[in-house]
Amino acid sequence: MYLTKTKSFGAALALSLAAALPASAILAPAPAEAAAGDLDKAVAALRGIATMKADFVQTDRAGQSVRGVMTLKRPGKIRFQYEKGVPMLIVSNGKSMYMVDYEVNQVQRWPIANSPLGALLDPSRDVKKYGKLVSTSHPDVVSVQVRDPGRPEFGVITLIFARDASAPGGLRLTHWVSLDSQNHRTTVRLSNQRYGVAVADSSFTFRDPRRSSRRPG
Could you give all domains of the chain from N- to C-terminal order, each with its CATH number? Predict the structure, then answer.
């Protein structure tokens, strides 16, 4: 059985989108001089990703894990293709995010702006305005927490990077942690990251289980 289902937006998003982050990795706001430089580097790293594919392992708050492949294309497109046997799909067409449940033939839709993943999909909008650098236990790890204090229902996402000269901006996105307004925590760890790969826009469509036609996703 795949991860437990939930009806609320925040819980559904946390369920579907996010290696547990060690407690020592996020301790307190980083020193101001470090924060200024590394926050800029993190934003540059995100903006430097035109396309990306990566394998992922998603773990929910109960410790259940599923695997799959993530495909990202800017602006705003992302797809989480789960492993065989998991009848669920998460996909965004740049405007809206969809959670498609093929087991019950249900599709849920939310604006990207309402998603903690907005920081990943549109760093120019979220990271500089709402992000803060938080100290980590390792000098080669950069952790950025993004939240909109005026919209707590949008949740929080913490993006974790490793310094890597071969990655865009010199930082490789390794994983993130989503926390929704109901404190449902989900973690996604990436591996085998491939940057600059060819990605067709058709990758961000889905088979709508409510009818036989195909719609943008």
Answer: 9-204 (2.50.20.10)
